[in-house]
Every structure is written in C-alpha cells, then in structure tokens.
Amino acid sequence: MKTVVFTAAPYCYGPTAKAICIAEEFFGECEMIFVGMEPGVSLARNSVFSRVMKVNDRDCWDTDSLRVLANADLLVSALDYRALPLAAACGVPSVFLDTLFWLRNEPPPHTELASVYLAQQFFQTPQCSHLEFCDRFIEVGPILPKRLDEWSLPRVKAMPLDVVVNFGGLQSPAMRPGADRDFIMLTSRILEACLPNACRVRFALPRYLQSASGLVSDICNRFTIEYPTQSEFHKALQKCDLLIATPGLETVYEATAAGVPMVFLPPYNATQLLQNRVYVTNKVGLHHLELPYEGFDAITANTLNSITSQIQAQNANHVLNTRLLWQVGEMLAECLNAAFANANVISSNVGHNQFLLRSLRPHGRKAAAQVIKSRWENRSPALVT
What we know:
single chain; alpha/beta; Rossmann fold; six-stranded parallel beta sheet; 13 helices; disordered C terminus
C-alpha cells in the first residue's frame, strides 16, 4: 500500500481543511499521514489520517517526521511551500496546492521543486500567469467535502434563527499575541448588541482554545460555545439558518453549497481583508460588518504577515470602542430584520452565491485527487470533467 504524507501551512484552518477534503478521496486506498503545526494538527486528528504528527519548525522537521517523509511515496502540501525542499532532499515527489494563487504576482519560493502545482479557483482572475508553470500547472475548482457534493436550496425561515458563528482556525505564525481572544471578544460584543434573545447562537471556536482559561466566561452567556471537528461543523452548517463568519475562503464555498445565507465578520488577517473586498465587489453575502481599517490600500502576497499584524492591532483598539461596536451591531440588526422578513431576499442572495460558485470549474476535490493519484502511480494526470 502506498504512503502519502500530507502537510498544510499553519495559517488558520483553511489549508488543513483542504488537505482533509482531498484525503477523503483516498480513504482505504493508501496510508495517509499528516505532519504539521497548530491549529492544523488539532483539526487533522479528528479526520481520515492514520497518524498525525506535530512539528515545531516548518523548515526543520524532527527526526521521526523526516523518517516518515523519506519512506513515503508522495508529499501533498496545502499552501506550505516550505515543506517542498524537505521532500526534495528525501527524494520524494511532491504536489503543491495553492489556495491563494488568485492574489499572487509570482509563484511562491520552492514551488519549482513540486511535480505538480495545483491552484484552487476563486472569484477573481489570478494576477500570476499559469504559463510560468507550463505543464506542471493545473487549475481546479472549489475543493468541497464529500458531505456537500449535493448542493442544497436556500432554506428561508423567519426569526428567531439558528445561527452559527464560525471563526476558523485563528492561529497562525503572523498572529499578534492575544489577537484570537481580541477577535472573539470583538465579535461577541457586536452580536450581543443586535441578535434577539430568542435566536440560538453557537460560537464555533478552534479546538486549540479548549483549554484557554477564562475565555468562555468573557463571551456573552447567551451564546453556546463549541469546538467542532470538521465533520461536526459541516453538520451544524447544513442545519443552521444563518452563518456569520470571517471573510475566509473555504467556509464561504461550503456555506454556498449548503444553501446557507452568510454575514461576514470584520477581517482577522490580511488575506481576509482582500477576500472581503472581492466578496463586496461580487455581492457575496447578506451583510458585511464594517470597521475602519487604515493604511491597507496596497497588499501583496509578500506583505500578508506584516499587514495581518497591523489589522489585529487595530482590532484590539476596536474591541474597546463600545459605541462603534454598538453602531455596527445596529446596522446588522436592521439588515437581518429586513432580509428574513422577505423570503425573496434570502433566496436571491443564496442563489446569486451559488451561481458564482457554479461559474468555476466543477468537481475540484475529485480533480485534485485524480492528479495526486497519478503522481504516485507515475503517470500523467488527466482531469475530471
């Protein structure tokens, strides 16, 4: 049986979530081992991988992890280009999956070492030409979990609502100390001011925060706190009436396929700030919670970490501005009251989101899996159509 090592950049949950989705396609066909850092390892432990190994340095894996990699048939790296030289040094072929290709001016470092460069599509045309990668470059559509293969029609319900508030993974190497807590408090205070008491509100927090002392007591006691696995989150998503989420990428694709209307929280990092601008331009979502962010007109792939720190510093100031948060909450309340009083508003918005998603390539997960499987079988990839 072949052995495939998966790894993912430790930037929130997105890269690891993509790795898990793709790994679902290989269950029972090969041994799959995940090697990575938090917050990804917490998510990977409750999924399809036979082993999950935590490393503390993306550039220098420990002896056991390197031994596993050296004995593998393939490395699949979700956004973590820093793992590619490790695979090359072990003589192991690699596949690089890029979920941020749409914002790049040039390919990331070390990607010339990958046998295949997979790029997941987004709602914006990439700035970097795929011609730079020649026959190594393959673009795939949205990579969705198997559970969401069958898309759902929008469910329209009047108040009160079952609301899921999703924060994603929060943790990343670019995170300012305490930025995760600040952002959770910011969200709690906005929603406390605007969501009716009759609404059921569930905060889906990253699993690494389960042991964080004092965090739960700081959140409004009307809200239920959960630390879902990826599977548990998808179940909750399919049953809820409204998703309130950070302007990430993966959850937006998933909520769209599930037929769930969305409200976007303020950005937590630089990538989300850019993605939020794309969502506003394309009219994705019912409402965007807008806070003032200054000095971020020009953001590139090379400045994401520094801009993230600045955004989180401004969020730390915003959480202390009670008047501002109340005003933002009031605007959300007006939007929700108007939207859920008119079934056509919800249906139209979700239908628009699904139209945009269908305009991208289909079967992203299956296409990516087929390419990956072709590499361990040493044959040329042929895409699913």
